[in-house]
Design goal:
The complex is a heterodimer of chains A (about 375) and B (about 190).
Chain A: H1 2-17, H2 20-33, H3 45-69, H4 73-81, H5 88-98, H6 103-129, H7 140-145, H8 148-175, H9 188-200, H10 209-222, H11 224-232, H12 240-264, H13 273-278, H14 280-296, H15 308-337, H16 348-355, H17 362-383
Helix pairs in contact in A: 1-4, 2-3, 2-15, 6-15, 6-17, 8-9, 8-15, 10-11, 11-12, 12-14, 14-15
Chain B: H1 2-15, E1 21-28, H2 35-42, E2 56-63, E3 66-73, E4 92-98, H3 105-116, E5 126-131, H4 141-147, E6 158-162, H5 171-186
The chains are: A mainly alpha (about 375), B alpha/beta (about 190).
The complex binds guanosine-5'-diphosphate and magnesium ion (MG).
Protein backbone atom coordinates (compact mmCIF):
# COMPACT_ATOMS: atom_id res chain seq x y z
CA UNK A 1 0.00 0.00 0.00
CA UNK A 2 2.79 2.31 0.87
CA UNK A 3 4.03 1.77 -2.63
CA UNK A 4 0.97 3.24 -4.26
CA UNK A 5 0.76 5.94 -1.74
CA UNK A 6 4.30 7.06 -1.88
CA UNK A 7 4.27 7.40 -5.61
CA UNK A 8 1.84 10.25 -5.78
CA UNK A 9 3.00 11.63 -2.47
CA UNK A 10 6.55 11.86 -3.65
CA UNK A 11 5.50 13.40 -6.89
CA UNK A 12 3.59 15.95 -4.96
CA UNK A 13 6.47 16.61 -2.60
CA UNK A 14 8.97 16.98 -5.37
CA UNK A 15 6.56 19.25 -7.13
CA UNK A 16 6.25 21.33 -4.03
CA UNK A 17 9.99 21.51 -3.52
CA UNK A 18 10.25 22.89 -7.02
CA UNK A 19 7.40 25.33 -6.70
CA UNK A 20 7.66 29.02 -6.00
CA UNK A 21 5.87 28.51 -2.68
CA UNK A 22 8.93 26.65 -1.50
CA UNK A 23 11.73 27.93 -3.65
CA UNK A 24 11.16 31.62 -3.18
CA UNK A 25 11.12 31.78 0.62
CA UNK A 26 13.94 29.29 0.96
CA UNK A 27 16.14 30.94 -1.63
CA UNK A 28 15.29 34.28 -0.20
CA UNK A 29 16.34 33.17 3.21
CA UNK A 30 19.59 31.73 2.02
CA UNK A 31 20.54 34.70 -0.04
CA UNK A 32 19.74 37.03 2.78
CA UNK A 33 21.70 35.16 5.36
CA UNK A 34 24.54 33.59 3.46
CA UNK A 35 26.95 36.50 3.57
CA UNK A 36 28.37 35.60 6.95
CA UNK A 37 29.13 32.03 5.92
CA UNK A 38 32.76 31.70 4.98
CA UNK A 39 35.05 28.83 4.28
CA UNK A 40 36.91 28.89 7.55
CA UNK A 41 37.12 25.66 9.42
CA UNK A 42 35.74 27.25 12.54
CA UNK A 43 32.06 28.07 12.69
CA UNK A 44 30.76 31.38 13.90
CA UNK A 45 28.29 31.42 16.72
CA UNK A 46 25.93 33.34 14.49
CA UNK A 47 25.56 30.34 12.21
CA UNK A 48 23.64 28.55 14.91
CA UNK A 49 21.03 31.25 15.20
CA UNK A 50 20.61 31.34 11.46
CA UNK A 51 20.25 27.59 11.33
CA UNK A 52 17.55 27.78 13.97
CA UNK A 53 15.70 30.36 11.92
CA UNK A 54 16.02 28.15 8.90
CA UNK A 55 14.55 25.20 10.74
CA UNK A 56 11.57 27.29 11.71
CA UNK A 57 11.03 28.40 8.18
CA UNK A 58 11.17 24.93 6.73
CA UNK A 59 8.93 23.49 9.36
CA UNK A 60 6.39 26.16 8.73
CA UNK A 61 6.49 25.63 4.99
CA UNK A 62 6.24 21.87 5.20
CA UNK A 63 3.48 22.03 7.77
CA UNK A 64 1.45 24.26 5.54
CA UNK A 65 2.11 22.10 2.58
CA UNK A 66 1.18 18.87 4.25
CA UNK A 67 -2.01 20.36 5.57
CA UNK A 68 -2.91 21.71 2.20
CA UNK A 69 -2.30 18.49 0.39
CA UNK A 70 -3.63 16.37 3.18
CA UNK A 71 -0.75 14.06 3.81
CA UNK A 72 0.52 13.16 7.22
CA UNK A 73 4.01 12.81 8.52
CA UNK A 74 4.10 9.07 8.06
CA UNK A 75 3.22 9.41 4.40
CA UNK A 76 5.78 12.10 4.05
CA UNK A 77 8.40 9.89 5.61
CA UNK A 78 7.44 6.86 3.54
CA UNK A 79 7.61 8.83 0.38
CA UNK A 80 10.92 10.40 1.19
CA UNK A 81 12.54 7.15 2.12
CA UNK A 82 11.32 5.31 -0.93
CA UNK A 83 14.01 4.23 -3.38
CA UNK A 84 12.76 6.72 -5.89
CA UNK A 85 13.42 9.58 -3.52
CA UNK A 86 16.93 8.36 -2.98
CA UNK A 87 17.86 8.54 -6.60
CA UNK A 88 20.69 10.87 -7.43
CA UNK A 89 18.53 13.49 -9.02
CA UNK A 90 16.15 13.75 -6.16
CA UNK A 91 18.77 13.80 -3.49
CA UNK A 92 19.67 17.34 -4.26
CA UNK A 93 16.03 18.30 -4.23
CA UNK A 94 15.78 17.05 -0.69
CA UNK A 95 18.98 18.63 0.49
CA UNK A 96 17.37 21.86 1.70
CA UNK A 97 14.95 19.78 3.71
CA UNK A 98 17.61 17.59 5.21
CA UNK A 99 19.67 20.64 6.03
CA UNK A 100 17.26 21.45 8.82
CA UNK A 101 18.56 18.51 10.73
CA UNK A 102 22.12 18.58 9.53
CA UNK A 103 24.11 21.62 10.44
CA UNK A 104 27.06 20.62 8.32
CA UNK A 105 24.90 20.29 5.27
CA UNK A 106 23.22 23.57 6.04
CA UNK A 107 26.57 25.22 6.37
CA UNK A 108 27.69 23.81 3.03
CA UNK A 109 24.59 25.10 1.33
CA UNK A 110 25.09 28.54 2.79
CA UNK A 111 28.77 28.72 1.94
CA UNK A 112 27.94 27.63 -1.54
CA UNK A 113 25.25 30.25 -1.84
CA UNK A 114 27.64 32.91 -0.68
CA UNK A 115 30.14 31.82 -3.28
CA UNK A 116 27.52 31.88 -5.97
CA UNK A 117 26.53 35.40 -5.15
CA UNK A 118 30.09 36.55 -5.18
CA UNK A 119 30.83 34.91 -8.46
CA UNK A 120 27.72 36.38 -9.94
CA UNK A 121 28.73 39.79 -8.76
CA UNK A 122 32.06 39.27 -10.46
CA UNK A 123 30.32 38.30 -13.64
CA UNK A 124 28.20 41.36 -13.59
CA UNK A 125 31.15 43.59 -13.06
CA UNK A 126 32.98 41.96 -15.84
CA UNK A 127 30.07 42.28 -18.16
CA UNK A 128 29.64 45.90 -17.35
CA UNK A 129 33.16 46.95 -17.67
CA UNK A 130 34.44 44.64 -20.28
CA UNK A 131 36.81 43.31 -17.72
CA UNK A 132 37.20 42.93 -14.08
CA UNK A 133 38.94 45.73 -12.32
CA UNK A 134 42.56 44.77 -12.19
CA UNK A 135 42.66 44.38 -8.52
CA UNK A 136 40.08 41.68 -8.87
CA UNK A 137 41.52 39.62 -11.55
CA UNK A 138 43.97 37.06 -10.90
CA UNK A 139 43.52 36.81 -14.54
CA UNK A 140 42.92 33.20 -15.09
CA UNK A 141 42.16 32.21 -11.59
CA UNK A 142 39.00 34.12 -11.14
CA UNK A 143 37.82 33.75 -14.64
CA UNK A 144 38.29 30.06 -14.56
CA UNK A 145 35.48 30.00 -12.11
CA UNK A 146 33.09 31.78 -14.33
CA UNK A 147 31.85 28.96 -16.33
CA UNK A 148 32.25 29.80 -19.92
CA UNK A 149 28.96 28.48 -21.02
CA UNK A 150 27.20 30.74 -18.63
CA UNK A 151 29.27 33.66 -19.73
CA UNK A 152 28.20 33.18 -23.28
CA UNK A 153 24.59 32.96 -22.46
CA UNK A 154 24.97 35.94 -20.29
CA UNK A 155 26.54 37.99 -22.99
CA UNK A 156 23.81 37.17 -25.38
CA UNK A 157 21.29 38.01 -22.81
CA UNK A 158 22.87 41.26 -21.98
CA UNK A 159 23.11 42.30 -25.56
CA UNK A 160 19.52 41.57 -26.06
CA UNK A 161 18.49 43.23 -22.90
CA UNK A 162 20.03 46.45 -23.99
CA UNK A 163 17.30 47.01 -26.46
CA UNK A 164 14.73 46.10 -23.94
CA UNK A 165 16.35 48.38 -21.54
CA UNK A 166 16.13 51.32 -23.84
CA UNK A 167 12.54 50.56 -24.42
CA UNK A 168 11.90 50.35 -20.78
CA UNK A 169 13.66 53.59 -20.16
CA UNK A 170 11.35 55.34 -22.51
CA UNK A 171 8.38 53.76 -20.94
CA UNK A 172 9.55 54.72 -17.51
CA UNK A 173 10.29 58.25 -18.42
CA UNK A 174 6.79 58.60 -19.47
CA UNK A 175 5.21 56.91 -16.54
CA UNK A 176 7.38 57.56 -13.58
CA UNK A 177 9.00 60.41 -11.84
CA UNK A 178 10.52 58.62 -8.90
CA UNK A 179 13.80 56.87 -8.76
CA UNK A 180 12.09 54.02 -7.06
CA UNK A 181 12.10 50.83 -9.00
CA UNK A 182 15.41 51.08 -10.66
CA UNK A 183 16.46 47.64 -9.74
CA UNK A 184 15.40 46.00 -12.93
CA UNK A 185 17.41 48.37 -14.99
CA UNK A 186 20.60 48.58 -13.10
CA UNK A 187 22.43 45.74 -14.67
CA UNK A 188 21.26 46.49 -18.16
CA UNK A 189 22.35 49.99 -18.38
CA UNK A 190 25.93 49.74 -17.40
CA UNK A 191 26.19 47.13 -20.05
CA UNK A 192 25.18 49.52 -22.68
CA UNK A 193 27.73 51.81 -21.23
CA UNK A 194 30.46 49.31 -21.27
CA UNK A 195 29.60 48.24 -24.73
CA UNK A 196 29.91 51.79 -25.80
CA UNK A 197 33.12 52.18 -24.01
CA UNK A 198 34.30 49.20 -25.81
CA UNK A 199 33.33 50.36 -29.20
CA UNK A 200 34.64 53.77 -28.55
CA UNK A 201 38.01 52.71 -27.39
CA UNK A 202 39.61 50.52 -29.89
CA UNK A 203 42.93 51.25 -28.41
CA UNK A 204 43.29 51.17 -24.71
CA UNK A 205 43.96 54.53 -23.24
CA UNK A 206 46.58 55.48 -20.75
CA UNK A 207 45.46 53.16 -18.02
CA UNK A 208 44.66 50.38 -20.34
CA UNK A 209 42.04 48.28 -18.85
CA UNK A 210 41.57 50.29 -15.78
CA UNK A 211 40.63 53.35 -17.67
CA UNK A 212 37.51 51.67 -18.73
CA UNK A 213 36.63 50.79 -15.28
CA UNK A 214 37.20 54.23 -14.00
CA UNK A 215 35.68 56.18 -16.78
CA UNK A 216 32.20 55.50 -15.78
CA UNK A 217 32.21 56.33 -12.12
CA UNK A 218 34.10 59.48 -12.88
CA UNK A 219 31.59 60.78 -15.28
CA UNK A 220 28.78 59.83 -13.12
CA UNK A 221 29.86 61.63 -10.04
CA UNK A 222 31.08 64.77 -11.66
CA UNK A 223 27.70 65.55 -12.93
CA UNK A 224 25.38 62.82 -12.17
CA UNK A 225 22.59 63.81 -14.40
CA UNK A 226 24.50 64.76 -17.44
CA UNK A 227 26.94 61.95 -17.41
CA UNK A 228 24.40 59.38 -16.61
CA UNK A 229 22.17 60.65 -19.30
CA UNK A 230 24.82 60.61 -21.90
CA UNK A 231 25.96 57.22 -20.90
CA UNK A 232 22.63 55.69 -21.42
CA UNK A 233 21.44 57.52 -24.42
CA UNK A 234 22.82 55.06 -26.85
CA UNK A 235 19.53 54.87 -28.62
CA UNK A 236 17.34 57.34 -26.92
CA UNK A 237 17.81 60.47 -24.96
CA UNK A 238 17.13 59.18 -21.57
CA UNK A 239 16.13 60.80 -18.46
CA UNK A 240 18.62 61.00 -15.66
CA UNK A 241 16.64 59.70 -12.79
CA UNK A 242 16.57 56.01 -13.32
CA UNK A 243 20.19 56.27 -14.24
CA UNK A 244 21.31 57.91 -11.12
CA UNK A 245 19.52 55.19 -9.32
CA UNK A 246 21.37 52.51 -11.12
CA UNK A 247 24.59 54.34 -10.87
CA UNK A 248 24.14 54.42 -7.21
CA UNK A 249 24.19 50.71 -7.20
CA UNK A 250 26.95 50.61 -9.67
CA UNK A 251 29.22 52.82 -7.68
CA UNK A 252 28.88 50.43 -4.86
CA UNK A 253 29.63 47.29 -6.60
CA UNK A 254 33.06 48.11 -7.80
CA UNK A 255 34.53 48.87 -4.47
CA UNK A 256 32.59 46.01 -3.07
CA UNK A 257 34.57 43.31 -4.59
CA UNK A 258 37.67 45.32 -4.72
CA UNK A 259 37.65 45.86 -1.02
CA UNK A 260 39.44 42.69 -0.13
CA UNK A 261 42.42 43.90 -2.01
CA UNK A 262 42.14 47.42 -0.94
CA UNK A 263 41.93 46.72 2.70
CA UNK A 264 44.94 44.54 2.88
CA UNK A 265 46.95 44.76 -0.27
CA UNK A 266 49.41 47.15 -1.73
CA UNK A 267 47.80 46.55 -5.07
CA UNK A 268 45.14 48.97 -4.01
CA UNK A 269 47.19 51.49 -5.86
CA UNK A 270 45.97 49.91 -9.03
CA UNK A 271 42.66 51.55 -8.52
CA UNK A 272 42.61 54.65 -10.59
CA UNK A 273 42.52 57.73 -8.53
CA UNK A 274 39.64 59.07 -10.45
CA UNK A 275 37.54 56.22 -9.27
CA UNK A 276 38.44 56.77 -5.71
CA UNK A 277 37.73 60.41 -5.76
CA UNK A 278 34.69 60.15 -7.82
CA UNK A 279 32.93 57.80 -5.56
CA UNK A 280 33.74 60.00 -2.64
CA UNK A 281 30.13 60.50 -1.79
CA UNK A 282 29.78 56.93 -0.81
CA UNK A 283 33.37 56.19 -0.21
CA UNK A 284 33.62 56.31 3.51
CA UNK A 285 30.58 54.22 4.12
CA UNK A 286 31.47 52.00 1.29
CA UNK A 287 34.83 51.42 2.77
CA UNK A 288 33.43 50.39 6.07
CA UNK A 289 30.87 48.02 4.80
CA UNK A 290 33.13 46.62 2.23
CA UNK A 291 35.70 45.73 4.72
CA UNK A 292 32.98 44.18 6.69
CA UNK A 293 31.59 42.40 3.75
CA UNK A 294 35.01 41.17 2.97
CA UNK A 295 35.62 39.85 6.38
CA UNK A 296 32.21 38.42 6.77
CA UNK A 297 31.97 37.02 3.35
CA UNK A 298 35.21 36.23 4.06
CA UNK A 299 38.39 34.76 3.82
CA UNK A 300 40.20 35.94 6.87
CA UNK A 301 39.12 36.83 10.33
CA UNK A 302 37.31 34.88 12.99
CA UNK A 303 33.96 35.77 14.35
CA UNK A 304 33.58 39.24 15.73
CA UNK A 305 30.46 40.57 17.21
CA UNK A 306 28.84 42.85 14.76
CA UNK A 307 27.28 46.14 15.55
CA UNK A 308 23.87 46.76 14.19
CA UNK A 309 25.15 49.17 11.64
CA UNK A 310 27.61 46.63 10.41
CA UNK A 311 24.86 44.14 10.10
CA UNK A 312 22.90 46.61 8.11
CA UNK A 313 25.80 47.07 5.84
CA UNK A 314 26.08 43.40 5.33
CA UNK A 315 22.42 43.30 4.69
CA UNK A 316 22.87 45.96 2.09
CA UNK A 317 25.50 43.97 0.43
CA UNK A 318 23.38 40.87 0.49
CA UNK A 319 20.46 42.74 -0.92
CA UNK A 320 22.53 44.15 -3.64
CA UNK A 321 23.96 40.82 -4.58
CA UNK A 322 20.53 39.36 -4.54
CA UNK A 323 19.21 41.99 -6.86
CA UNK A 324 21.98 41.19 -9.23
CA UNK A 325 21.27 37.56 -9.02
CA UNK A 326 17.55 37.94 -9.57
CA UNK A 327 18.17 40.01 -12.57
CA UNK A 328 20.60 37.62 -14.01
CA UNK A 329 18.20 34.87 -13.39
CA UNK A 330 15.40 36.57 -15.17
CA UNK A 331 17.61 37.49 -18.04
CA UNK A 332 19.02 34.05 -18.39
CA UNK A 333 15.65 32.46 -18.35
CA UNK A 334 14.42 34.78 -20.98
CA UNK A 335 17.37 34.10 -23.11
CA UNK A 336 17.09 30.39 -22.85
CA UNK A 337 13.45 30.63 -23.68
CA UNK A 338 14.14 32.45 -26.85
CA UNK A 339 16.77 31.53 -29.33
CA UNK A 340 19.84 29.89 -28.03
CA UNK A 341 21.48 30.22 -31.33
CA UNK A 342 23.90 33.05 -31.81
CA UNK A 343 26.62 32.34 -29.41
CA UNK A 344 29.49 34.69 -29.82
CA UNK A 345 32.63 32.78 -30.48
CA UNK A 346 34.79 34.93 -28.38
CA UNK A 347 33.92 37.74 -26.15
CA UNK A 348 35.86 40.93 -26.09
CA UNK A 349 35.72 40.62 -22.37
CA UNK A 350 37.65 37.44 -22.29
CA UNK A 351 40.29 38.82 -24.52
CA UNK A 352 40.74 41.84 -22.40
CA UNK A 353 41.17 39.86 -19.30
CA UNK A 354 43.82 37.70 -20.71
CA UNK A 355 45.73 40.69 -21.88
CA UNK A 356 45.71 42.16 -18.48
CA UNK A 357 47.76 40.18 -16.11
CA UNK A 358 47.67 42.43 -13.17
CA UNK A 359 50.20 42.66 -10.43
CA UNK A 360 48.88 40.72 -7.58
CA UNK A 361 50.53 39.91 -4.38
CA UNK A 362 51.28 36.41 -3.39
CA UNK A 363 48.89 36.66 -0.55
CA UNK A 364 46.09 37.70 -2.80
CA UNK A 365 46.90 34.92 -5.13
CA UNK A 366 46.70 32.49 -2.32
CA UNK A 367 43.34 33.86 -1.35
CA UNK A 368 42.00 33.44 -4.81
CA UNK A 369 43.48 30.03 -5.05
CA UNK A 370 41.79 29.12 -1.87
CA UNK A 371 38.57 30.48 -3.16
CA UNK A 372 38.82 28.58 -6.33
CA UNK A 373 39.64 25.50 -4.42
CA UNK A 374 36.61 26.04 -2.31
CA UNK A 375 34.46 26.45 -5.34
CA UNK A 376 35.73 23.21 -6.74
CA UNK A 377 35.27 21.46 -3.50
CA UNK A 378 31.78 22.75 -3.18
CA UNK A 379 30.91 21.71 -6.63
CA UNK A 380 32.12 18.28 -5.83
CA UNK A 381 30.73 17.89 -2.40
CA UNK A 382 27.53 19.78 -2.47
CA UNK A 383 26.33 19.87 -5.99
CA UNK A 384 27.25 16.42 -7.11
CA UNK A 385 26.48 14.64 -3.93
CA UNK B 1 1.10 22.93 16.79
CA UNK B 2 4.17 22.53 18.92
CA UNK B 3 3.57 18.82 18.86
CA UNK B 4 3.27 18.76 15.13
CA UNK B 5 6.49 20.63 14.69
CA UNK B 6 8.31 18.32 16.98
CA UNK B 7 6.98 15.45 14.96
CA UNK B 8 8.02 16.94 11.71
CA UNK B 9 11.53 17.46 12.88
CA UNK B 10 11.85 13.91 13.98
CA UNK B 11 10.55 12.86 10.59
CA UNK B 12 13.25 14.83 8.91
CA UNK B 13 15.74 13.35 11.29
CA UNK B 14 14.78 9.89 10.15
CA UNK B 15 15.05 10.95 6.57
CA UNK B 16 18.77 11.02 6.77
CA UNK B 17 18.38 7.30 7.09
CA UNK B 18 22.02 6.49 7.39
CA UNK B 19 22.65 2.99 8.60
CA UNK B 20 25.41 4.25 10.80
CA UNK B 21 24.46 5.21 14.27
CA UNK B 22 25.12 8.88 14.80
CA UNK B 23 26.07 10.22 18.16
CA UNK B 24 26.08 13.82 19.18
CA UNK B 25 28.84 14.72 21.59
CA UNK B 26 29.37 18.16 23.03
CA UNK B 27 32.84 19.11 24.17
CA UNK B 28 32.89 21.82 26.81
CA UNK B 29 35.18 23.31 29.42
CA UNK B 30 36.98 26.54 30.19
CA UNK B 31 39.04 28.25 27.55
CA UNK B 32 42.56 26.91 27.29
CA UNK B 33 41.57 23.53 28.72
CA UNK B 34 42.55 21.78 25.51
CA UNK B 35 39.16 21.11 23.91
CA UNK B 36 40.14 22.03 20.40
CA UNK B 37 43.42 20.20 20.70
CA UNK B 38 41.52 17.14 21.79
CA UNK B 39 39.03 17.48 18.96
CA UNK B 40 41.72 17.81 16.35
CA UNK B 41 43.70 14.92 17.67
CA UNK B 42 40.54 12.81 17.59
CA UNK B 43 40.17 13.77 13.96
CA UNK B 44 43.86 13.07 13.36
CA UNK B 45 44.51 16.66 12.43
CA UNK B 46 47.45 18.88 13.15
CA UNK B 47 47.33 20.24 16.69
CA UNK B 48 50.11 22.78 16.29
CA UNK B 49 48.15 25.58 14.66
CA UNK B 50 45.27 25.89 17.07
CA UNK B 51 44.09 29.35 18.03
CA UNK B 52 41.59 30.26 20.74
CA UNK B 53 38.11 29.33 19.60
CA UNK B 54 35.74 32.22 18.99
CA UNK B 55 32.90 30.12 17.69
CA UNK B 56 32.70 26.36 17.48
CA UNK B 57 34.21 23.44 15.64
CA UNK B 58 32.62 20.21 14.54
CA UNK B 59 34.36 17.01 13.61
CA UNK B 60 32.89 13.68 12.76
CA UNK B 61 34.85 10.71 13.92
CA UNK B 62 34.15 7.10 13.07
CA UNK B 63 34.55 4.85 16.05
CA UNK B 64 33.24 1.42 16.98
CA UNK B 65 30.94 1.46 13.98
CA UNK B 66 29.40 4.71 15.04
CA UNK B 67 29.65 8.20 13.71
CA UNK B 68 30.56 10.55 16.49
CA UNK B 69 29.70 14.14 15.73
CA UNK B 70 31.77 16.10 18.19
CA UNK B 71 30.98 19.75 18.82
CA UNK B 72 33.70 21.85 20.41
CA UNK B 73 32.30 25.16 21.60
CA UNK B 74 34.52 28.05 22.60
CA UNK B 75 35.07 28.29 26.33
CA UNK B 76 35.86 31.94 26.89
CA UNK B 77 33.71 33.54 29.49
CA UNK B 78 31.85 35.69 27.02
CA UNK B 79 30.97 32.67 24.93
CA UNK B 80 29.81 30.43 27.75
CA UNK B 81 26.27 31.81 27.74
CA UNK B 82 25.96 30.28 24.28
CA UNK B 83 26.70 26.76 25.50
CA UNK B 84 23.04 26.25 26.27
CA UNK B 85 22.16 26.49 22.62
CA UNK B 86 24.18 23.44 21.78
CA UNK B 87 22.92 21.00 24.36
CA UNK B 88 19.72 19.80 22.74
CA UNK B 89 19.71 16.17 21.64
CA UNK B 90 23.14 15.63 23.11
CA UNK B 91 24.02 12.00 23.67
CA UNK B 92 27.13 12.64 25.67
CA UNK B 93 29.04 15.46 27.32
CA UNK B 94 32.80 15.62 27.38
CA UNK B 95 34.09 18.13 29.88
CA UNK B 96 37.74 19.06 29.60
CA UNK B 97 39.83 20.41 32.47
CA UNK B 98 43.33 21.80 32.46
CA UNK B 99 44.71 19.71 35.30
CA UNK B 100 47.61 22.08 35.79
CA UNK B 101 45.52 25.21 36.16
CA UNK B 102 44.72 24.96 39.84
CA UNK B 103 43.75 28.60 40.05
CA UNK B 104 40.72 27.88 37.94
CA UNK B 105 39.57 24.63 39.47
CA UNK B 106 36.80 26.40 41.29
CA UNK B 107 35.66 28.22 38.19
CA UNK B 108 35.61 25.08 36.11
CA UNK B 109 33.77 23.24 38.85
CA UNK B 110 31.07 25.88 38.89
CA UNK B 111 30.61 25.75 35.16
CA UNK B 112 30.36 21.99 35.21
CA UNK B 113 27.79 21.95 37.97
CA UNK B 114 25.69 24.43 36.04
CA UNK B 115 25.83 22.21 33.00
CA UNK B 116 24.87 19.19 35.03
CA UNK B 117 21.71 20.98 36.04
CA UNK B 118 20.70 21.78 32.50
CA UNK B 119 17.43 20.21 31.50
CA UNK B 120 18.79 19.19 28.12
CA UNK B 121 21.59 17.23 29.74
CA UNK B 122 19.38 15.32 32.11
CA UNK B 123 20.68 11.79 32.38
CA UNK B 124 23.31 12.41 29.74
CA UNK B 125 26.58 10.56 30.48
CA UNK B 126 29.59 12.75 31.24
CA UNK B 127 33.20 12.04 30.50
CA UNK B 128 35.64 14.34 32.22
CA UNK B 129 39.06 14.57 30.70
CA UNK B 130 41.68 15.60 33.23
CA UNK B 131 43.88 17.00 30.50
CA UNK B 132 47.50 18.10 30.33
CA UNK B 133 48.74 15.24 32.44
CA UNK B 134 52.04 15.56 30.62
CA UNK B 135 52.72 18.69 32.67
CA UNK B 136 54.59 18.17 35.90
CA UNK B 137 52.25 20.46 37.76
CA UNK B 138 49.12 18.56 36.75
CA UNK B 139 46.88 17.33 39.53
CA UNK B 140 45.95 13.66 39.38
CA UNK B 141 42.51 12.76 38.12
CA UNK B 142 41.42 11.37 41.46
CA UNK B 143 42.09 14.65 43.16
CA UNK B 144 40.15 16.54 40.56
CA UNK B 145 37.25 14.12 40.82
CA UNK B 146 37.09 14.80 44.50
CA UNK B 147 37.22 18.54 44.00
CA UNK B 148 34.37 18.31 41.54
CA UNK B 149 32.26 16.15 43.83
CA UNK B 150 31.71 13.71 41.07
CA UNK B 151 30.67 11.06 43.54
CA UNK B 152 27.55 13.07 44.25
CA UNK B 153 26.29 12.67 40.70
CA UNK B 154 23.15 10.65 40.53
CA UNK B 155 21.12 9.40 37.62
CA UNK B 156 23.87 9.55 35.10
CA UNK B 157 26.96 7.71 34.07
CA UNK B 158 30.18 9.53 34.58
CA UNK B 159 33.85 8.86 34.19
CA UNK B 160 37.00 10.84 34.72
CA UNK B 161 39.94 10.07 32.53
CA UNK B 162 43.45 11.41 32.87
CA UNK B 163 44.87 12.33 29.50
CA UNK B 164 47.16 14.48 27.44
CA UNK B 165 45.59 15.82 24.28
CA UNK B 166 49.05 16.68 23.05
CA UNK B 167 50.63 13.28 23.45
CA UNK B 168 47.38 11.42 22.98
CA UNK B 169 47.84 9.44 26.15
CA UNK B 170 44.59 8.43 27.77
CA UNK B 171 42.46 9.81 24.98
CA UNK B 172 41.64 6.45 23.48
CA UNK B 173 40.67 5.07 26.88
CA UNK B 174 38.18 7.87 27.18
CA UNK B 175 36.79 7.21 23.75
CA UNK B 176 36.39 3.55 24.54
CA UNK B 177 34.39 4.40 27.60
CA UNK B 178 32.21 6.65 25.45
CA UNK B 179 31.51 4.01 22.91
CA UNK B 180 30.76 1.32 25.43
CA UNK B 181 28.51 3.67 27.23
CA UNK B 182 26.62 4.88 24.22
CA UNK B 183 26.16 1.38 22.94
CA UNK B 184 24.74 0.34 26.28
CA UNK B 185 22.51 3.34 26.39
CA UNK B 186 21.11 3.21 22.94
CA UNK B 187 20.48 -0.46 22.63
N1 LIG C 1 51.08 20.51 27.78
C1 LIG C 1 49.88 20.37 27.23
N2 LIG C 1 49.31 21.42 26.59
C2 LIG C 1 48.10 21.25 26.03
C3 LIG C 1 47.42 20.02 26.10
N3 LIG C 1 46.23 20.16 25.46
C4 LIG C 1 46.19 21.44 25.01
N4 LIG C 1 47.32 22.10 25.35
C5 LIG C 1 47.64 23.49 25.05
O1 LIG C 1 46.73 24.33 25.73
C6 LIG C 1 46.44 25.47 24.94
C7 LIG C 1 44.95 25.60 24.71
O2 LIG C 1 44.48 24.54 23.93
P1 LIG C 1 43.12 24.63 23.14
O3 LIG C 1 42.91 23.33 22.48
O4 LIG C 1 43.08 25.84 22.28
O5 LIG C 1 42.11 24.83 24.35
P2 LIG C 1 40.55 25.19 24.27
O6 LIG C 1 40.44 26.63 24.53
O7 LIG C 1 39.93 24.39 25.36
O8 LIG C 1 40.06 24.79 22.92
C8 LIG C 1 47.19 25.28 23.64
O9 LIG C 1 48.39 26.01 23.74
C9 LIG C 1 47.48 23.80 23.61
O10 LIG C 1 48.68 23.51 22.92
C10 LIG C 1 48.05 18.93 26.78
O11 LIG C 1 47.54 17.83 26.88
N5 LIG C 1 49.26 19.17 27.31
MG1 LIG D 1 39.13 25.91 21.47
Amino acid sequence: MAEDDSEWVIESIVGYLGSPEWVIPVTDFMENKCTVFDDEDENKLSYTEIHAQYKKLVEKLLDNYMQEVGINEQQFLDACTSPFAKSKTLQSVFQPVLATDDFQMFRSLMVQKNMELQLQALRVIKERNGALPECLTDGVDVMAELQEQEMKILQEVLKKSKEEYDEEMCRRMRSEEEVGSTSSSCSDKPVSESREAHNAMTAPSQHGNTAKVSSKPTKKEESKTAAAGSAAKSSSTSKPKPDSGSNGVESRVLPAVRAPVKSSEPSASLIPESTRQSSSSSQSTAEVWLEEAHREAGFTKPFVELTTSQQEELQQRATYLRQQRDKLHALKKEQQKSKHTTTPVESPATTTTTNTIPEISAEEKKKLQKRKHLADKLKEEVIKK
Amino acid sequence: MGEAQKGLLSVIEKLKGSTEQEVRIVLLGLDNAGKTTLLKSLASEDVNTITPTQGFNIKSVASHGMKLNVWDIGGQRKIRPFWKKYLENTDLLIYVIDSADKKRFEETGLELSELIDEENLKGVPVLIFANKQDLATASPASEIAEGLNLHTYRDREWQIQACSAVSGEGVQDGMNWICNNIVNKKK
